[in-house]
Amino acid sequence: MKIAIVGGGAAGMATAYLLNKHHDVRVFEQQPILGGNIRTLNKNVTGTALDTELVLDCGVIEFQRDNFPYFHRLMSALNVPMEEGRTSSELFMANGQYFKSGAGIMHNCKNSRERLKELWKVLPVMGGYIKFLLKTRKITAEELYDKPMSVYLNQDIHSRWLKMLLMYAYSMPYNSITNFPAEIGIPVLRQSDIFTQWDRIIGGVYSYIEKILEQFSGQLYCSARINNIRRQPTNAAAVAINMQGGETLYFDKVIFAVTPEQVLRLLADASEDEQRRFGAWEKNAIETVVHTDVSFYKHFGVSYYSEFDVFQNNASDNCGYNAYLNRLYGIDAQRYQHFSLAYNLGQRIDPSKIVHVQQHQSPFYSVAAVRYRHEIITTNGANHTYHAGAYLGNGLHEGAIASAYAVAALLDNRP
Ligand SMILES: Cc1cc2nc3c(=O)[nH]c(=O)nc-3n(C[C@H](O)[C@H](O)[C@H](O)COP(=O)(O)OP(=O)(O)OC[C@H]3O[C@@H](n4cnc5c(N)ncnc54)[C@H](O)[C@@H]3O)c2cc1C
User: Under a CB-based contact definition with an 8 Å cutoff, are residues 9 and 38 in contact?
Assistant: First the structure.
């Protein structure tokens, strides 16, 4: 079959890899480079101020060892080298207070005295987290459907910390987390505890896309400008892709692997059902910053940075995060510098210490947006049209890759 995949991010490229053997596959990516939220400096992102011998990710970084089965299946099929990354997280409040997570207390304290002091400080917060785990222990997916996170989290310090973790995981504005869909948020929070193991890809996340490209025999159209897409079920060719230059390309099937708010923009003949399923999705345009400024930690009297720290920037709950890349990537700060990846830290970062600013497009997760996800998944294939993307699963990389396997199985008629 002749198959068009629109979107060259994780979901699109994994689907392209899985369908490549048996089909004529074309990938249409609107950006000049592939990868979507996979942005690896000195790989698919070049020409930055970063030392050329370093490879750093400024988008997707890490993957759970035990709860990402489809992702790990793909990585082993592609022979991608992975290593365990230690992860701890600390919470920095606008009033100067800070709390270390369990892993932070284990690994990021100078001595047992400090360990004991930090443990004592964080105990009430841990108590709140245990209550949250107990409260959500028996909740079924059906009960979480159509509920916002505000049903399960409030203004307590542990709730704030968990909301900040969702802000970090989904690069969503902190204030929107109250309306974040619980059906995605609760399972992810429950799976991200002190015992969770995280892996990263040696050589940067984009290296797995490179491995896909080594085997890919279809065609890639980067900087693709699609005007619109029509399904013509009565014609011999079922799908017509009209390019902005006036050219029309015909396919048997089309797979949308774009951010969901793009689907209705692209479909010239969206049905009422499709309008309902995709109508509430909005765009989440964000920026991440790679920088070498760690001076803002001094304000808290801290000299040992966690892999993932969350910050309350001011009392009105403007929040952001800082991921300390040296520890994640084993970079020697004496030889190079202290590298971090930040989101929404605003004026904390000295502009002269910014190495690279990266734009990202991501789905804006809300209760209304995910309401019809189940319909999208169960009608995949109707009218020659399929959908893949992280937003159809857990919103993380596992969701993207799992959706690719699901679409490939439908097209290849596999269970
Ligand atoms: C900053 C950031 C960090 C993240 N870090 C992690 C992490 O560490 N671990 C994790 O598991 N998850 C992480 N995520 C979640 C992430 O969204 C997924 O892991 C995954 O990469 C998403 O893949 P996707 O293919 O669904 O979407 P995307 O990566 O968004 O891919 C969609 C693609 O479609 C293209 N496109 C859009 N519109 C059009 C159009 N009209 N025509 C053609 N092409 C189009 C886009 O340019 C893009 O390349 C992160 C997300 C962000 C934003």
Answer: yes
116/119 Cα distance (integer angstroms)? 5
* Predicted pLDDT of residue 222: 98
Residues whose CB is less than 8 angstroms from the CB of residue 113 and which lie 6 or more positions away in sequence, other chains included: none
199 is written with which tokens?
A: 């892996």
Choose one of 249, 397, 398, 403 to mutate for the ligand 1 pocket test, by most ligand atoms within 8 angstroms of C-beta: 397
Given the DSSP bridges, would you call strands 239-243 and 226-231 parallel, antiparallel or unpaired?
A: antiparallel
pLDDT above 90 (res 79): yes
pLDDT for 13 beyond 80: yes
The residue among 19, 82, 111 whose CA lies nearest residue 404 is 19
Give rounded-to-5 percent helix, strand, coil for the chain.
40, 25, 40
Q: Which protein residue's CA is at the shortest distance from atom 50 of ligand 1? A: 60
Residues lining ligand 1, Cβ inside 6 A: 6-12, 28-31, 36-38, 59-63, 171, 224, 226, 257-259, 262, 266, 288, 360-362, 389-390, 396-397, 400
Q: How far does CA 229 lie from the centroid of its chain?
A: 27
* Range 176-193 average pLDDT: 93
- From the CA atom positions of the chain, what is the Rg in Å? 22
What share of the chain in percent tops pLDDT 70? 100
Helix axis angle, 112-136 to 157-170, nearest 10°: 80
**Separation CA 50–CA 39 (nearest Å):** 14
Dihedral in degrees, nearest 10, Cα atoms 282, 27, 4, 269: 30
* Cβ atoms 15, 408 nearer than 8 A: yes
CA 280 from chain centre, in angstroms, equals 20
- 114-137 average pLDDT score: 90
Helix (H) / strand (E) containing 342: strand 340-343
First to last CA, the chain: 19
In sequence order, the β-bridge partners of residue 321 are 310, 343
Q: What phi and psi, each to the nearest 5 degrees, are found at residue 96?
A: 95, -10
Give the tens place of pLDDT for each residue, 225-270.
999 999 987 777 899 999 999 999 999 999 999 999 999 999 999 9
The C-alpha atoms of residue 221 and residue 14 are separated, in whole angstroms, by 16
Cα-to-centroid distance, 36 and ligand 1 (Å): 4
260-296 exposure pattern, b = at least 16 Cβ within 10 A, e = fewer: bbbbeebbeebeeebeebbbbbeebebebbbbbbbeb
